[in-house]
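Input chain follows. Return structure tokens only.
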Amino acid sequence: MGFLDIPYKDVPDLRVIPEGTEVLLTIKEAKFTVKEESGNKFIQLKLADMGDPSVKKVYENIFLPRDDDDEDKKQNKLRRIKQFCEAFQVDLNQCEVNDATKEIQALVGASGWVIVSVDTDSQYGESNNIARYIKRA
């Protein structure tokens, strides 16, 4: 018998949610980011399926419009923001960004329904992305 008695062998491997599944996700972290190279501004989200701890976290970037975006690109970004806000019942115009940490605390804990997709990366394996936000009534 070893010096530790912890049941690590029974812990399930992390898995992804199957493609096309509707799932309720909760925002665990939200951060405002500006890429120095490109000047792109976006909100980085880390979301979790609170009902299943064996599901990998979902990471989402919500890109904000830029002054040099063409009208089509600008409208697509605004549409995605609108869909996010409607699904999670939040108002980004009312959120404050912590100057020191860049965190958007008002978003943390908000939950919304989404449809997920599955991507595969050679370094990280399978991961979920948000294919579509589902508007709540």
